[in-house]
Amino acid sequence: MKKKVLATLLAAAMTAGCLVGCGGGDGAADAPAADTPAAEAPAADDSAEAPADDAAAAEPVEYGSGNITIWVAENMVDFTKEQTDAFFAANPDMAGYTVTVEPVGEGDAAGNMLTDVEGGADMYGFAQDQITRLVSAGALAPLTGANAEFVTSQNDAGAASAAVVGDTTYAYPMTSDNGYFLYYDKSVVTDPSSLEKIVADCEAAGKNFYMEINSGWYQPAFFFATGCTLTYDTDSDGNFTACNIDYASDKGVVALKEIIELASSSAFQNGSSVDNGTNIGAIVDGTWDSGSAQAIFGDNYACAKLPSFEGSDGNTYQMSGFGGFKLLGIKPQEDAGKLAVCHALAQYLTGADVQLARYNAVGWGPSNTTAQQDDAVKSDVALSALAEQLALTIPQGNYPGDYWTLATSLGDDVISKTLSTSATDDELMTALQSFQDTCISYAQ
Predict the structure, then answer these.
(1) pLDDT tens for residues 66-124?
(2) Could you tell me which residues come within 8 angstroms of residue 87 by beta carbon, excluding any fewer than 6 positions away?
(3) 423 contacts: CB under 8 Å, gap ≥ 6
């Protein structure tokens, strides 16, 4: 029965593959959507069997053979090899493929694919902020039908939305752990819920408070806190069509004043890496540095969501910011059999069991909702703080490359005291208006 169901799926995949080969389709073939190896996934009773004279259903499944290249982070190479071996052992009808796993991290994979799509990997991990560029370059096979349903049904809403451009899903979420929160020394910081108190405690103890205010990733924590918006709309081809921004506003001035106030503290240090910090009392950082944070703080290691701050208008604001995700993409394929295998393998590598195994191996936080409920994941102090913070953040969408440079420039003006505590509201508004107008120009 399973062979018949898979045969039907493969017949549809072959049709899509033909369209790709003839230049008439997008190459999105549906593989079995499940959290287990694909050959075990399609479950059906006898009433669901195709008629005996259905030639497509009666024919044996032929997935073909060849090579599949996968790019993953260097520390994920051995793990991924083990998992792909397990997948093909469970799916011998798909085992005609030789898999090569190469160490190309999420930060480099997108750039390499954009440089040479044809020569790039068949499957690759990448950071979500690169998805628009990859779609525009034709480097991602769209997901349709059961494949798209797998993404939305298996992952948290933030991760699922990160894989979408326009109305189309283009990748499989691997993690929901790319965000930032507060690491602190609990012998120094008495109240991690208040930015003012954290800074005061660090000043009193002669310790440093680290936050990277000249980064387009960390900087929005202040602006989003006061209710500002900065997002971009994209079309189905990944082109930026509009910028939604209101930084040049009273609430934007409140946020910028808070950044300036923080930078004026003797405890402030611009940075976001535990390994590069010295004499740390508290730092805004991510889960990737949890091991280093534990080593530095020892028994005083503690984590919390980002604090709130009292704005210049007398109101209290909860710091917000971006949430991010790691995704697994598939390069468009002309061979429908290979494409179907890639989709099935991608679902296995991003399913609950493998995400949990990946967490246990290297600490990557799962996006799969079942894996998130595992006791080990729920008891992870850093992931728990991040989970609390992610509920207060905005899932990072797609931003032009120039935005990040522009945000760095705004933060540098604060660090250099070009924008200081002596600046008038009009001067701050002028700076924010220039920032806003430039952001808008990137979508024109």
Answers:
(1) 999 999 999 999 999 999 999 999 999 999 999 999 999 998 999 999 999 999 999 99
(2) 37, 94, 344, 345, 348, 349
(3) 260
Cα–Cα distance for residue pair 33/20, rounded to 1 Å: 22
Sign of CA pseudo-dihedral 182, 187, 193, 194: negative
How does 418-433 read in b/e, with b if 16+ C-beta sit within 10 Å?
Answer: ebeeebeeeebbebbe
188 Cβ contact list (under 8 Å, min separation 6): 201, 202, 205, 207, 281, 282, 300
Domain count within the chain:
2
CA distance 404 to 212: 13
pLDDT at 397: 77
Q: What does DSSP say about strands 123-127 and 326-330: parallel, antiparallel, or unpaired?
A: antiparallel
Residue numbers of the domain that contains 35 = 2-177+325-384
In the structure, what pLDDT confidence band is assigned to residue 17 with cuts at 50, 70 and 90?
very low
199 and 253 share one domain: yes
CB 77 within 8 A of CB 103: yes
Residues 369 and 435 both lie in one domain: no
CA distance 109 to 282: 32
Segment 188-194 mean pLDDT: 98
CA distance 358 to 326: 13
226 is a domain residue: yes
Max distance between CA atoms of the chain, in angstroms, equals: 83
Range in 40-44, 141-145, 413-417 the model is least confident about: 40-44
Confidence of residue 141 (pLDDT cuts 50, 70, 90): very high
pLDDT at 97: 97
Q: Answer yes or no: are the C-beta atoms of 350 and 80 closer than 8 Å.
A: no
Mean pLDDT score, 17-39: 38
Domain with residue 34: its CATH number is 3.40.190.10
Terminal-to-terminal C-alpha distance of the chain: 54
Q: How confident is the model at residue 34 (pLDDT cuts 50, 70, 90)?
A: very low
